[in-house]
Amino acid sequence: MRRQVTVIILLSLLTVYCLLFTPVFAADSTPSANLVQKLNALKTQIASKAAQIKLEVDKRMVNRVLIGQVSTAQDKSFTLATKDGDKIILTNEYTVFSGRSGKKAIAGTKDLTKDDFVISLGDIDDKGQMLSKKVIKQDPVKDLRKVVFGQVIFLDGATITIQTKDNQKLDLVTTSNTNFFQGKDEASFKDVKLGKLVVAVGITQNTLIKARLISILKTTEQLKFDKLKSASSSATPSAKPK
Fold it and tell me: What is d(CA 29, CA 195) in angstroms, rounded to the nearest whole number?
């Protein structure tokens, strides 16, 4: 009898053990593994979404330089008349202003007036509006007679020789007053390399251009230029020997 009672107690304890602890082990193993898998899948999904968002932002936001005359100016924004039409320039507390209006240094859009010659560097969104990082007020447009675009083919001292898409060669003379930019960042003469594309604004003096601003363009613009230059060369008939 005592032996039967002992067996019954042992069987009861074994049953309780199985009921209490076996599910715990199962709960600690399979759901945990499933949870890790779900977390890893979620991390992968988040990383993929972040990469997709960054790609979309990169498509919409492009470092650019806009040059033109102010047509209207409001608080925190102004409209710039460029060769490609009117462009809305937005500014914020991080926008840097450079240049003078008379004897006064400009500090914001309130210091800009109609027909001011302005250079704006910043990002253009998919609406065609620029959020400007830097606004530079230059001399009146009548004193800046030339805006040129080309590829650097020669460097000599302070002179940069460029070749336009029409195969015209131009010499850009730089001085201590020449402003250099690469994208939206400030640069210097040493950042100008052979093969680079530049946009220059300056005063024509005989066969030279005294550059007031030189903007070094990015690789994407380089590819576009190479295609234009190639098309221009193929469209020009070769000279026949006399």
Answer: 62
Q: Domain 144-233 classified CATH 3.40.50.2300?
A: no
Q: Which has the closest alpha carbon to 160: 188, 192, 137?
A: 192
Burial class (CB in 10 A: 0-12, 13-18, 19+), 92: exposed
> Domain map of the chain by residue range?
62-140, 144-233
Distance CA 41, CA 29 (A): 18
Beta bridge mates, 213 = 179, 201
Q: Which CATH topology does 62-140 take?
A: OB fold (Dihydrolipoamide Acetyltransferase, E2P) (2.40.50)
This prediction's pTM:
0.48
Looking at residue 216, its amino acid is I
Alpha-carbon torsion, ordered 208, 211, 217, 223, to 10 deg: -10
Per the listing, tokens 């998919």 go with 126
Please give the chain's pLDDT, 242 residues, in tens: 445 445 455 555 555 455 444 444 444 445 566 777 777 777 787 777 766 666 555 555 556 788 888 999 999 999 999 888 899 999 999 898 988 776 778 889 999 988 888 889 888 887 889 999 889 887 665 555 678 888 999 999 999 999 988 888 999 999 988 989 887 678 899 999 999 989 888 888 777 898 988 988 875 455 455 555 555 555 544 444 44
Quick check: 202 and 158 in contact, CB under 8 A? Answer: no
- Residue by residue, DSSP assigns 108-120 as SGGG--TT-EEEE
